[in-house]
Amino acid sequence: MDAKEIIARRVAQEVRPGMLVNLGIGLPSMVANFVPSDRHVFFQAENGVIGLGARPPEGMEERDLTDAGGGFVSAVPGAASIDSAMSFGLIRGGHLDMTVLGGLQVDERGYLANWMVPGQMVPGMGGAMDLVAGARRVIVAMLHSARGASKIVPECTLPLTAARRVSLIVTEMAVIEPTVRGLVLRECGPGVSVEDISAATEAALIVPEDVPQMNLG
Amino acid sequence: MDAKEIIARRVAQEVRPGMLVNLGIGLPSMVANFVPSDRHVFFQAENGVIGLGARPPEGMEERDLTDAGGGFVSAVPGAASIDSAMSFGLIRGGHLDMTVLGGLQVDERGYLANWMVPGQMVPGMGGAMDLVAGARRVIVAMLHSARGASKIVPECTLPLTAARRVSLIVTEMAVIEPTVRGLVLRECGPGVSVEDISAATEAALIVPEDVPQMNLG
Amino acid sequence: MIPEGAVLLIGGFMGVGSPHRLIDAIVARGVGGLTLVNNDTCRPGEGVGKLIDAGLVARAIVSHIGLNPVAQKKMLAGEMQVELVPQGTLVERIRAGGVGLGGVLTPTGIGTLVEEGKQVLEIDGRRFLLEKPIRGDFALLDARQSDYVGNLEYSLTAHNFNPVMALAADTVIAEPHHIMPVGVIPPDAVKTPGVLVDYILERAR
Amino acid sequence: MIPEGAVLLIGGFMGVGSPHRLIDAIVARGVGGLTLVNNDTCRPGEGVGKLIDAGLVARAIVSHIGLNPVAQKKMLAGEMQVELVPQGTLVERIRAGGVGLGGVLTPTGIGTLVEEGKQVLEIDGRRFLLEKPIRGDFALLDARQSDYVGNLEYSLTAHNFNPVMALAADTVIAEPHHIMPVGVIPPDAVKTPGVLVDYILERAR
After folding, report:
1. Does the keyword Transit peptide apply (chains A, B) (predicted)?
2. Nearest CA to CA, how far is D105 from chain B (Å)?
3. Do the Cβ atoms of B200 and B176 come closer than 8 Å?
4. What is the structure's pLDDT at B38?
5. Calpha distance C90→B127 (Å, rounded)
6. Burial class for C198, CB neighbours closer than 10 Å (0-12, 13-18, 19+)
């Protein structure tokens, strides 16, 4: 199982029945593949649909039915079209139960940076700032390190997405919960020890006595 | 022709082709009867319809199609249902070309009072404050006097509906335009002289040399 | 389900677009001390007017009470507090509560009694009133039809405050005239997504 | 009709729900110095990306430019000003411009770079950014269909910014895929009332 699949499978365990969930593009969108259909979850794409379904078979795509990444999708029975005001009304208003986003850095306060690298890459925040500010639960799904450097740092050096403590960080190595006291190590990835995680993490981690293995469903 | 019909007929002359018009309940609603259908005007009822039509024949009323006074109406071809947020978005946002409202008092500044008489009658402002603050043209359609007292006064003693100069005052006696300089007498009612109007008006009037008779269509 | 003292957002404009079955149920149970948020106080014996007749409303946040003499009397007698709010401000305050905005900046009410006690902001040379968001413990809605997921469609002038109130309460209960199987309402016809609706109760025929 | 330097609100999200015929017409005429308000800068050669390719956009107010390297390059070279706005804030700013509100009070962006240079209000213990309304000289909209009065219906994820932009420009031009006779679109299906729409131009087949 590759790193991304580990992350997607573990995040899928966080999805509870009946939730409204927004998945970011890229890695986070893989989470949908591991959520059982009997959980009656509605996926929101912030560009305007609640009840996102799988990519349709070739030749059956509809030009006006896409996800936030511009990819063709389908709509499940009971889906609803919404405009951008309603879409972000749901997000900002606390109606979105969970959002899963990628990250560039998360720090000991639990703050996320994921929208720009000054002088290098300025894609823009898109809907990320609203999602992180407004969703009930914010889950950061990302690789533990990038180019050998830990993405979990004492304090974000990149511009913040929101001054809000995210709910959970899921990497291929660990599940980490930001709390008032700091980052608490909750689970170890498959075949990874607490020592491996500490060595790969620049931020200070609070390590409870018992740190179980990830449940990958 | 009774006083109210004079007022309604004269106000109807202000309606230009293609306008979106809101008529208050009571006297203002009579204006619709005198607007020719070839003027392609859309009437808005602020409770939620654009393209208000006449009262339907008995037995053909629809419980969910009423005007702001709660009376049964019909919808013209091309009508649209709107919710209260859209309805007042149109009003506050300057999309409403004209509103016609009743008045308790209008003063020399052109300010209108029409929503309460302290200690006596507190019906509430309903949509009136938004209408007066937001419509492009505000026309006050009212009897010139009430219980022998002029309703056109130096300064409103009743609580204001908005601190905004209304566009035009139409009574059975006169058409009066509030301007930066004060209230200008524009037209005399049928069989009414400038002297009659001055005598019946508590506020100071600016009287141009030539004051024509009302055109009642 | 609704406790004493709850804040109720109830759809309807002079009773049109009100959830009449839910209103009757509250009257039957006699739950008191309520805060009622509605466009108006309707008429005695009709719509939300029944809640006022029964003495269940301690506070009403509405734009108009002129057609309900019972409401007028209770207000003057001090038996019911009434906060009168311009209609457009009322709907935006509820929307702000529903979509997570901190308030509404409106020109409506500037220079009138409505301004009293409120903050006024000057923005680019124009003055606006800062009006606070409104949220409810419960929203009670009327709808033309729903599906079993709770997607709602509304009818003509029965829309009024219903779609906005659906966003602004902890618990949302809709009273559709019909409930349809899931998949029958096309996505483009849905005005309130089912994820906002907690309970649906079909209007009794 | 569109002059040099105009502010254009153009519907669409990565080109979905954009008025492609109108965009092509602007490119063909070569009207420059434009301010573009859109969710994003699309991709080179697609949707509003064509306006940027042609060098017609002096300023873009968008939430995202990450998928358009031409836009990135022009921004870094100083050939195009870019104001990046969080998506939910962008749509509310346009709505505020359209419905006559003085601004938007949003929690989004608090504690980030977006806060810089803006007023922060504390309301009941929470902090909100005051974001200013946006209006356009023209709104260019995509729609599924219209009638000859200009009533608009939208399709699935092609709604996005279109219904809100319809409120916020001096002149509104819609590009429906089909134009139907008046009376064919039921009142409850209308998402943008025709009174908001000044011109309709059918999408070429």
Report:
1. no
2. 17
3. no
4. 85
5. 10
6. middle
pLDDT digits (tens, 9 = 90+) for D128-148: 999 999 999 999 999 999 999
Q: In what order do the strands lie in the sheet with B105-107?
A: B112-113, B105-107, B152-153
* Structural domain boundaries in chain A: 3-206
- The CATH architecture assigned to D1-84+135-205 reads 3-Layer(aba) Sandwich (3.40)
Sequence ranges of the domains in chain C: 1-84+135-205, 87-131
Q: Which amino acid is at A61?
A: E
- Measured between alpha carbons, how far is C75 from C98 in angstroms, rounded to an integer? 28
Contacts of A132 in chain C (CB under 8 A): none
Cα–Cα dist C42/D2, whole Å: 49
**Which of C149, C205, C196 has its CA nearest to residue C173?**
C196
What are residue A213's DSSP bridge partners? A188
Q: Which of C38, C33, C80 has its CA nearest to residue C63?
A: C38
ipTM: 0.97
Taking 50 as the pLDDT cut, the residues of chain B under it are none
Measure A108 CA to nearest chain D CA, in Å: 16
Residue appearing with tokens 């300025």: A122
* Residues C68 and C41: beta-carbon distance below 8 Å: yes
Q: Cβ–Cβ of C105/D107 closer than 8 Å?
A: no
Res. D205 pLDDT band, cuts 50 70 90: low
* Spatial CB neighbours of B121, under 8 Å, sequence gap ≥ 6: C66
Q: Does the annotation count A46 as an active-site position?
A: yes
Alpha carbon distance A23, A68 (integer Å): 9
**Distance, CA of D113 to CA of A160 (rounded, Å):** 8
Binary contact (A81, D163; C-beta < 8 A): no
**What's this model's pTM, rounded to 2 decimal places?**
0.97
Identify residues of D whose CB sits under 8 angstroms from chain C CBs.
Answer: 92, 96, 99-107, 121, 123-124, 126, 128, 130, 132, 144, 153-156, 187-189
SS3 C174: strand
Residue C38: strand, helix, or coil: coil
Residue B2's Cβ-count burial label (10 Å; 0-12, 13-18, 19+) is exposed
Q: How far is B71 from chain D (nearest CA, A)?
A: 19
What are chain A's partners, defined as 3 or more CB pairs within 8 angstroms?
C, D
> Under an 8 A CB cutoff, do D149 and B78 touch?
yes
Q: Which of A5, A14, A46, A172 is catalytic?
A: A46
Binary contact (A88, D87; C-beta < 8 A): yes
Cα(D152)–Cα(D150) distance, integer angstroms: 6
Q: What is the dihedral of CA C109, C112, C117, C123, to 10 degrees?
A: 50
Q: Tell me whether residues B83 and C107 touch, CB distance under 8 A.
A: no
DSSP labels, chain B = --HHHHHHHHHHTTPPTT-EEEE-SSGGGGGGGGS-GGG--EEEETTTEEEEEPPPPTT---TT-B-TTS-B-EEEEEEEE--HHHHHHHHHTT---EEEE--SEEETT--EE-S-BTTTB----TTHHHHHHH-SEEEEE--SEETTEESEESS--SPPSBSS--SEEE-SSEEEEEETTEEEEEEEPTT--HHHHHHH-SS-EE--S--PBPP--
Distance, in Å, from the CA atom of B189 to the CA atom of B171, rounded to the nearest integer, reads: 8
* Tokens encoding B160: 């204001």
Q: What is the pLDDT of residues C70-110, one digit of tens each?
A: 999 999 999 999 999 999 999 999 999 999 999 999 999 99
Contacts of D101 (CB under 8 A, 6+ apart): B92, C92, C104, C105, C106, C128, D95, D133
Rounded Cα distance, C49 and C24, in Å: 11
Give the type of residue at A48.
G
